[in-house]
Amino acid sequence: MATAKQYTAENIQVLEGLEPVRKRPGMYIGSTDQRGLHHLVYEIVDNAIDEAMGGHASLITVILHDDGSVSVEDNGRGIPVDIHPKLKKSALEIVLTTLHAGGKFGGDDSGYKVSGGLHGVGSSVVNALSAKMHAEVYLDGKTWIQDYERGKPLATVKAKGESKKTGTLIRFWPDKQIFDTLEFSLVTIMNRLRQQAYLTRGITVALLDEREQRIEEDQKQPRLYRFHFEGGIAAYVSHLNESRDVIGQPIWFEKETDDGYVEVALQYTQSFQEMVTTFANNIHTTEGGHHLTGFKAAITRTINAYARSQSLLKEKDENLSADDVREGLTAIVSVRLKEPQFEGQTKSKLGNAEMKTAVETVVNEKLAEYFEEHPGEAKNVVAKCLLAARARLAARAARDSVIRKGALEGMTLPGKLADCSSRDPSECELFIVEGDSAGGSAKQGRNREFQAILPLRGKILNVEQARLDRMLGNNEIKALIIALGVGIGEVKDLSKLRYHRVVIMTDADVDGAHIRTLLLTLFFRYFPELVEGGFIYIAQPPLYKIQRGKEMAYAYTDDEKSKTLKQWGVVEKDMQEQEETEEAEETDEMKALTKGSKKKEEPKKTARVNIQRYKGLGEMNPEQLWDTTMNPESRSMMRVTMDDAELADATFSTLMGSEVAPRRKFIQSRAKSVKNLDI
Length: 679
Ligand code: TTJ
Known about the structure:
single chain, alpha+beta, Ribosomal Protein S5, domain 2, Rossmann fold, 3 domains, 9-stranded mixed beta sheet, 5-stranded mixed beta sheet, 23 helices
């Protein structure tokens, strides 16, 4: 390699000693906590990835050693070791002991570098922040070594022996004088390496954890992880969509442009979530930037153009919006460019404006080409986007017509709301209760200080005819929205939420499941912030009351019922026949089984086991409802996640869909999976 050429005067100007790094480590690696510690690994690995990206290395091995050090080795060309004519030092030593802010020093002829933001600060920074560092270069048939302490070489670079391989090995011991912690997280490092392996198709990244505590007792084997993805970012997309219902194969393309390299993988799913992840020079651009803008513009344009060309858009001026084409889209956009500019709050927004056009042009061209060649898949993608468009139109129409700006303003709290006396939302709870009779029990059983009850009449249960947008006009739902206090649409103000726990309390039967689905869908579509904020709950009323003499227990699941019976010494097998009467005379066998238990001292002559299965909340009296479902001391509630709500939304769409067949199928399959369903 003509390395001498790289050492121009210009390069030498920017060389600096490492003292400033140890004085202000945060300036170079962001922080000195565990995050900063991990940056050391990333920095060294990035160098090896650069070598692999240039096509010179295929294997990168990372070892977490037992003594707290980390080593990174590649099978690339090896950092040059020849002596710099002016500095009279080995290139290896210069790379590892001088700050080269320009980033081009020792740089490669060809490609793009993993650099920018907190990265690309240089391996010398890692050296400066390490109590010890050891470098080995396999080059020209020899092994060259140099050792350092806190960034200072202990000797000149020396040949240590023969070597047939080529490559670079760096091992470093982070300095405890610098870092708050020296504990590396296997998971964090593994995730990073996996991500880098996805982004550099075909390379192998191996991770070996040799630390004592990681070695499993029984096998005494260090743990080895290996990441290799022939499919690169297309495999990444497949991985992200693993649990989703996908539409077609992942679509993948790449192109080298004048402004840089563009690589994209995308795949639509039946989900509502958009997952578009962008990278610039292998750095995750969490704040997006121009490459993301270009991608979105191209997707919208291409899908609209295709849909129009195939007459899939009915009206002349009908268009799919950017939101429509992003629903259910999973994509990775990876660009590589010579001089990346990272901006934004966390320096993770790509600032190079030319990348908008670069990505946009490539995606327009390649995606259109793909659609032409795969008309079946293209049609399914358009269908999915049209579905999203229709849902959005319906929602907008609902907002416009039913709940216009200010329509809810000034409205008084609904009469059916039994409000609580506290006005501190953080302690207030709203129970949305199905049916007036359960509502009555809940009203009597509640703690009126902080618990409010809103009964919903059974009428809106008739969801099969309902449509979500019409639902917003329903008086029951209006009452709910007014009770929540946050408004809707343009006037939504979450700070006005009147209850920090909004609890859906429905029966454990089909109607109950319907109304729950409906409410969850409503929250998912119109109040996702409440779901995300963790304000929505589902009450968990018991399924059974189990009684024997004076003993009484509630069971919330079938498992729990079995457990209780077992504790009481009741053999469930024997119970089965009695289920019809749900009453059991204690058999001799049962008595024998209970002998060991406490109850032995006061044997009951007529101990009958009575199992009551609650079919609805209305079967519980106020006291029971309080004890089992509402009392914060003893109840359990499920907090609704976005995933739950999204699932409900999908369920709702299936139930509401015009096709009867899938709806029936859905109800049947649910019927099988939900044991406590009463049909
Ligand atoms: C420099 O130009 C001549 C050919 O080699 C180029 C180079 O620097 N290659 C290189 C560096 N390969 N691997 C590295 C490297 C690997 C690790 C693990 C750590 C560091 C600091 C560099």
